[in-house]
């Protein structure tokens, strides 16, 4: 049962960023803040995109270094980059 209310002041930039992250997580602002406080994993599209980009960069680096093409890691990274 939710019984407490917290009030805080944010700049326009802070509020906009918070609202954007809540929207990316497809949740309300209140639920997003609760998830952050509770350490709940938040499905943030921006973070997922950054992770995907990094994986693709690793794949490209390994290919350029001519790592064994039969290496399973290249196959897995290639598959992830295509997703």
Keywords:
single chain, mainly alpha, 83 residues
Q: How would you characterize the overall build of this protein?
A:
Helices cover 65% and strands 0% of the residues. With 83 residues, it is mainly α. Helix 1 packs across helix 2 (29-38) and helix 3 packs across helix 4 (72-82).
The radius of gyration computed from the alpha-carbon positions, rounded to a whole number of angstroms, is 19 Å
The low-confidence parts are: none
Main beta-sheet annotation = none
Average pLDDT over all residues: 80
Structural class: mainly alpha
Sequence of secondary-structure elements: HHHH
Bin the helical content: 55-70%
User: Termini, distance in Å?
Assistant: 40 Å
- Count of separate DSSP helical elements: 4
The beta-strand count equals 0
Strand content: under 5%
**Shape summary:** elongated
Summarize, please:
By secondary structure, the chain is mainly α. Helix content is 65%, strand content 0%.
Question: Which secondary structure elements does this structure contain, and how are they paired or packed?
Answer:
Blueprint lengths: L11 H13 L4 H10 L6 H20 L7 H11 L1
Helix pairs in contact: 1-2, 3-4
């Amino acid at each position: 049962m939710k019984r407490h209310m917290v009030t805080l002041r944010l700049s326009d930039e802070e509020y906009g960023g918070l609202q954007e992250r809540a929207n990316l997580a497809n949740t309300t602002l209140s639920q997003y803040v609760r998830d952050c406080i509770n350490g709940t994993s938040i499905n943030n599209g921006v973070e997922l995109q950054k992770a995907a980009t990094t994986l693709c960069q690793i794949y490209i680096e390994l290919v350029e270094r001519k790592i064994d093409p039969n290496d399973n890691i290249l196959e897995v990274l290639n598959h992830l980059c295509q997703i």
